[in-house]
Amino acid sequence: xxxxxxxxxxxxxxxxxxxxxxxxxxxxxxxxxxxxxxxxxxxxxxxxxxxxxxxxxxxxxxxxxxxxxxxxxxxxxxxxxxxxxxxxxxxxxxxxxxxxxxxxxxxxxxxxxxxxxxxxxxxxxxxxxxxxxxxxxxxxxxxxxxxxxxxxxxxxxxxxxxxxxxxxxxxxxxxxxxxxxxxxxxxxxxxxxxxxxxxxxxxxxxxxxxxxxxxxxxxxxxxxxxxxxxxxxxxxxxxxxxxxxxxxxxxxxxxxxxxxxxxxxxxxxxxxxxxxxxxxxxxxxxxxxxxxxxxxxxxxxxxxxxxxxxxxxxxxxxxxxxxxxxxxxxxxxxxxxxxxxxxxxxxxxxxxxxxxxxxxxxxxxxxxxxxxxxxxxxxxxxxxxxxxxxxxxxxxxxxxxxxxxxxxxxxxxxxxxxxxxxxxxxxxxxxxxxxxxxxxxxxxxxxxxxxxxxxxxxxxxxxxxxxxxxxxxxxxxxxxxxxxxxxxxxxxxxxxxxxxxxxxxxxxxxxxxxxxxxxxxxxxxxxxxxxxxxxxxxxxxxxxxxxxxxxxxxxxxxxxxxxxxxxxxxxxxxxxxxxxxxxxxxxxxxxxxxxxxxxxxxxxxxxxxxxxxxxxxxxxxxxxxxxxxxxxxxxxxxxxxxxxxxxxxxxxxxxxxxxxxxxxxxxxxxxxxxxxxxxxxxxxxxxxxxxxxxxxxxxxxxxxxxxxxxxxxxxxxxxxxxxxxxxxxxxxxxxxxxxxxxxxxxxxxxxxxxxxxxxxxxxxxxxxxxxxxxxxxxxxxxxxxxxxxxxxxxxxxxxxxxxxxxxxxxxxxxxxxxxxxxxxxxxxxxxxxxxxxxxxxxxxxxxxxxxxxxxxxxxxxxxxxxxx
Length: 868
Description:
Elements: E1 6-13, H1 16-23, H2 26-43, E2 48-53, E3 56-61, H3 64-80, E4 90-97, H4 103-115, E5 122-125, H5 126-132, E6 140-148, E7 157-164, H6 195-207, E8 210-214, H7 221-232, E9 240-244, H8 252-262, H9 272-281, E10 285-290, H10 298-308, E11 312-317, E12 327-331, H11 344-348, H12 351-363, H13 373-383, H14 388-395, H15 403-416, H16 426-440, H17 444-452, E13 460-461, H18 462-469, H19 478-486, E14 491-493, E15 500-502, H20 505-518, H21 521-539, H22 548-557, H23 559-571, H24 575-584, H25 586-591, H26 595-609, H27 615-630, H28 634-651, H29 654-668, H30 673-690, H31 693-709, H32 713-729, H33 733-749, H34 753-770, H35 773-789, H36 793-810, H37 824-831, H38 834-846, H39 849-857
Parallel strand pairs: 4-5, 8-11, 8-12, 9-10, 10-11
Antiparallel strand pairs: 1-3, 1-4, 2-3, 5-7, 6-7, 13-15, 14-15
Helix pairs in contact: 2-3, 6-7, 8-9, 12-14, 13-15, 14-16, 15-16, 17-19, 17-20, 18-21, 21-23, 21-24, 23-24, 24-26, 24-27, 26-27, 27-28, 27-29, 28-29, 29-30, 29-31, 30-31, 31-32, 31-33, 32-33, 33-34, 34-35, 34-39, 35-36, 35-39, 36-37, 36-38, 36-39
């Protein structure tokens, strides 16, 4: 490009094909209006339209400043158009070409910059930024996004976003080649302002290891922290993780929440705190710890994390500082609100007003404040101290009320509650006023439901709300929940297929105060416990059926509620309810990576309930013993099995006694298989008398295990074949699968190689289809033994290492020696050179489960197997 530098602008409508399909013939009219708006913006700022292709513009400008002004004017004008249907959102890219540069590469660079943007977003190259940084028009700011690799561009390009006051500044990650996805919750609504705070926090996180965002509830600490973490995530080699702590007051659960956010597995041999510390120690990570103020002494735990992990940085939110050495406190201020009498440009540039308008449009799409309305909105924001949550609650009233009525109601509420709690900071009083004002708009039945919902932890379903929050003076709660959602007192979640709702933490605190003051807290807490006890009992039969996965998902969604129900029942002296819930969730604890927590809970409750050996204790002991056998903890299995045998005999519960005998007998195999066989014979006899096909199938599987341990392979084969028949008759595919795996191994040992391998393949494919991870792990171990027989020691070690990793994530698993199988890791260590063995271990531990399954299925069939 000979001569002075030229600045290039590319634009494109996001989702134009979808819009054309949706709007039909109307799209041509909107496209023409889009063209007119952009042409006016370009030509008014000294630009020349070089070409128009479909919905894309390519323009040239004599200066970077004129191109940026055109982009800003175009975006503002487009946002002001009242589009029919979905609005047109245009992405823009601006790049300044150096003098004497080749034309095509510069044009291609500008086009790629535009392609990385999202609708409504303007991206600038670094060369453009350098020329306009000091020439930006009023209401326009620059925000550095970092360096990104763009398609067909060899070197990373440093990109900057043009932020326009009053317009959204939050966009998804750029469409670049190397964007790292931060582990942060998505932003459901537009983010406004905070550019100064974001810049300050960006700088602080480069110099401080602990930055705590403080301020009253509703000041926007969480939203600002999430946006900050997203902005700096690319600095951390191992990512940024969001950890919500709003649902707990227990210090001990903070590390468990961190582990869950990162995805760390439980370890039977280490505390969850140690698992977290071990992982963080060698990694470069940003942890966003949200809502710490209710956890007493949490500062010591945060300090411990920082001491143990030298490259860790923590961004926390709390209403008060943590008082930790080296902590940088950062007070999150309210939005600045224009003073009374401010002119229209000042009002339009206000983030507080932009937030109100945006949230009002969520409940009334055509909301468009007039020039007379803007000062009223500013007054509302001022009277709410500029607190974002209070502004959002006020804006929700725009569904039915004009802004003047919203202001008048708010004035009345401020006057009537001016003498609120003197112990609360002034800004907390303002937030209390805002929430209380929305609360007072509810009628008596709605208020009753609102306060009763405070008993839930981590959200609730419509069914749960009906059971816990209904009753005089309220009726059915579904319509009331809709009203509470409209009032922004309840929010809808989309974390599962079943609709769920929740409250923001600050609103939940207000609801809890109302519940405590109502005198019905004890009754509502009891209802909560009764509902989740009933739900656990309802779920229990399904947890052994083909639809177990759906029920596991449902329990996972309400896990915090189940935990709360157990804890509250135990604390109130109702240990029987705690035992019932914990026992009913037995398969969930085992199969959904909560086995360490579940076993600790069950064993502790059983031990503290003694000497009571009633039905609740018997069931809980059986659940703990059953899980212990599958986790390889046979000592606990024997202890809990003996206790449950004794209790069920006393109760005269033959089905329970049969199960308990199976637990105790299976746990005895490793120490005395002959004695175990005697117990299992009684188990099988009882199951046959009862006529329970499922119990008979399980009894025969346990019997076959003992017979195999004694070398009685023909007897074991017969037992397994009968076990499979009973399990299939009872639709118990879980145990049918394991019996099939065991039967396959016996076939291999007696020389039926192809039939045995076919059984193995069937088991691992069925486990994959059911997402049964313990089944996959055990099958991988047995395929590892096959690989040893085929002379493929390296494959055997890889498969066994993957199996060990899966079992570690689950908290344990049945050791292969129960079936008499050899340990591939032991044999591999003996046969392979140390460096090769360690390399295969590492490969297996890092191999994803799907790849491991495919490798198992391709294991060569051995020509022979060792004699049993």
